[in-house]
Design goal:
Layout: H1 3-12, H2 19-46
Helix pairs in contact: 1-2
Length: 64
């Protein structure tokens, strides 16, 4: 999303924002999103996931 697009979207909802402020706001949103995703991945990697064992199938090759 560009700052210009953010300004237009917010104007439709009655909020006036400069492009400079929109740029800083988007940067903050991206940084917070990255932190959130990183934290979620760390939490998931620390959890032990119990998965059922998979049966291993092998393809038999007939040699003639």
């Amino acid at each position: 999303m560009t700052p210009q697009k953010m300004v237009k979207i917010l104007e439709k909802h009655g909020t006036i924002l400069s492009e400079e402020c929109a740029e800083k706001t988007l940067e903050l949103i991206y940084r917070l999103s990255n932190l959130s995703v990183g934290e979620t991945i760390r939490q998931l990697s620390n959890e032990k996931v119990i998965r059922p064992e998979r049966k291993k199938y092998s393809r038999k090759i007939n040699s003639e």
